[in-house]
Amino acid sequence: MIKKLIFLLIISTGLFFLSRNTGLNFQQSLSISVFSASILGTLFFWNFRLTFAFLGTSVLLITQTIDIDNVIKFSSLEVILFLVGMMVLVGLLKDTGFFAWIVSLILRVKNLTANRFLVIISLISALLACAIDEVTSIIFIVAAIFEICDYFEIDATPFLIISVLATNIGSSGTALGNPIGILIAAKSGLTFEDFIFKAFPVMLICLLVAIAVLRFWYKKTLKEMDRKIKEFGYNEMLVSLISVPPEKELRISLVIFGLTLFFIALHHRLEVLLNLKHNTVLLTLPLISSGLVMAWKWKKAREFIEKDVEWWTLLFFLLLFSQAGTLKYTGATDIFAHKLLLAVKHSQPVLIGVILWISAIGSSILDNVVLVAAFIPIIQSFKELGFNLQPLWWALLFGGCLGGNITMVGSTANIVALGVLEKEKNIHMTFFRWFWVGLSVGLVTTVIAWLALLFLPIYN
Amino acid sequence: MKVKEIMTREVTSLSPELTVQEALGLLAKMEISGLPVIDLNGKLVGMFTEKEALEYILPSYISKVGRFIYEENPKSIKNKFSEMNKMKVSELMRKDVITTLEETTLCEVARIMLTQRSRRLPVLDKTGSVVGIVARSDILAALASEAETAK
Fold it and tell me: What is the CATH number of the domain that holds B46?
């Protein structure tokens, strides 16, 4: 631990002096140094990440690298409030048994075969990761996988890996699947419809190709499962394993959630119709829905806010965004953007590739929110240099989501699912057991996104 | 009144090397829900209760999946139960144990029990050895008798 701390201090201090030597002023160098300390802090000391965020932002304020008004401006409170609203809605869905209902639907699949199981868990993982956050969706998919695998007495690990890979792919399909989606939507001005028309189809193609790769990769496991299904016969016990009471509440919560998604999908049209500022409806809708939920379930309102909203993570995001904003405020990102452009010789296709692959490889090691928060001010700087930003935003989204599949620590969904695997089955995932299949799927899907961004005219 | 005046001095404890099956058998025999785990040197190393056993058997994600009813017993329960029975108490016990000292007042112990949601607390002497155990019922009985005397 001490070694890691010394390494962190050497790197962040080294970056400060390196930046000073390359002509950056004191404030620019300090903002780079503090931000790098926060990134390394999350990498080495996950449980202390808020400590780094609090101390780092305080250093920036005390040294007058940024002022309080701008810390608030860059903290992206609109994104934080959006996530709070969505977390309350997810809390309601959990409370009314929506997730258990999905689990029971998976358990009731008729004429189960191994291939059908693989396709169903991949599709449900991906589609649910589009509608609710990936960390929530992965938990109950894993629950369903464990019940089915226990019943047929097969190893659940390959199916858990499959569902996590599909979840990460699915989280790139809309602005709701991953915090980076809504962050990019809020900063880029891209609408939910843009995500549906430009991100969702690429996500679907990536998913189908990934399913094909996984079918090949886990050929033996699927064969073994088919043999066990024949041996055990119809999954009668699984069909009636769980039920969800009372159904009326579940129906009401489904209507609320469905309407929220419906209006989110139409947010841009509503904003035009009501003459509202861009993304006002998108960012306000979860607040309206969660406000109504708290009126309906007023006895549980405090519980929704205190237990279902991940304040620890959100506070970290808030301070991280303001630290990344400081890079923009001091002008450090403008300089970095300029240097990056020189390196790629002002070529937009090369720049798309660089952003896509840096964010994919980066988010295989780091929290993708950290990476995207750092990239956003850089991409915004390209606007002043006359670049079309749209393909760059998509490159950031796809890289940030698809890269999470490469390693076992690449995304929060991976870490959560493997934590459950360890606790429930006492199976410790090894780096390489994940890496080869994760790398194959990560590479293939990132290449698909790359080709789409380079050759499909809709992205320009 | 202090804890040392009301605590049970003869503490039945579990050895960390005992199997979970043996430990659960002892709990059932004594008709109590938990016992402290004390090593060969007389030091308290954990607390083993029925709650730890139930937590092990049921899936860890049940609270995260949300509201539902088990209409059948999942197949995994049987396997997990036989797996658990073979485990040692030290593998399943709660290691972070809330304790109290002999000189602590009854109200302070009651406060600890309420705020930490604890049913019984091992009582330690200055050297850290277990010298007794105090349960919620002991506190209530002592407070009731104090109230009677005051009348």
Answer: 3.10.580.10
* B67 to A97: CB separation less than 8 angstroms, yes or no: yes
**B67 Cα to chain A: minimum distance (Å):** 5
Can you give the pLDDT at residue A99? 87
Give the total number of structural domains in chain A: 1
Q: Enter the pTM of the model.
A: 0.88
Q: Does an H or E element contain A402, and which?
A: helix A390-402
- The total number of structural domains in chain B stands at 1
Question: Would you state the pLDDT for residue B73?
Answer: 84
Tell me whether residue A357 is in a domain.
no
Distance CA A405, CA A400 (A): 10
Q: Which of A96, A140, A143 sits opposite B67 (nearest CB)?
A: A96
Distance CA A138, CA A282 (A): 25
The boundaries of the domain holding residue A49 are 1-65
Query: Is there a domain that residue A282 lies in?
Result: no
| Half-sphere CA count of A403, side-chain side, radius 13 A | 25
Q: Which domain holds residue B144?
A: 3-150
In a domain, A404, yes or no: no
- Given an 8 Å threshold on Cβ–Cβ distance, is B79 in contact with A150? yes
Mean pLDDT of A119-137: 90
Q: Is A310 on the interface with B (CB under 8 A)?
A: no
User: Coil, helix or strand for A215?
Assistant: helix
Query: B61 in contact with A at a CB cutoff of 8 Å?
Result: yes
Whether the CB of A248 is below 8 Å from some CB of chain B: the reply is no
- B74 touching chain A per CB within 8 A: yes
Residue A41 has what pLDDT? Answer: 86
How far apart CA A36 and CA B61 sit, in angstroms, is: 35
* Residue A74, domain member (yes or no): no
Q: Would you say residue A234 has pLDDT above 70?
A: no
CA distance to partner chain A, nearest, from residue B92 (Å) = 12
Per-residue pLDDT at B150 exceeds 80: no
| Dihedral over Cα of A188, A193, A198, A203: its sign | positive
